[in-house]
Amino acid sequence: MSEPTDVVHNRIAMLRVERGVTRRELAEALGVHYQTVGYLERGEYAPSLHLALRISAYFGVPLEFVFSLEPFPKIGPG
Q1: Are 30 and 57 in contact (CB under 8 A)?
Q2: Based on C-alpha coordinates, what's the Rg of the chain?
Q3: What is the pLDDT of residues 64-74, one digit of tens each?
Q4: What's this model's pTM, rounded to 2 decimal places?
């Protein structure tokens, strides 16, 4: 088993692009600064539980679909 890290992996960018939502639109819906969305997408910032729950609710998917302690498998060829 690998060593634990503080990295929280997420699918925010994928969900946002898939739904045609800009970073600014998502930020406004969540009540955060648009740069916060960028930090989240790049894994430079781990959200609070409250923010994570709001993000999953915004996209209408389970929390575990958006966030993981392990990297998500790549989608598509390669």
Answers
A1: no
A2: 13
A3: 999 999 998 87
A4: 0.85
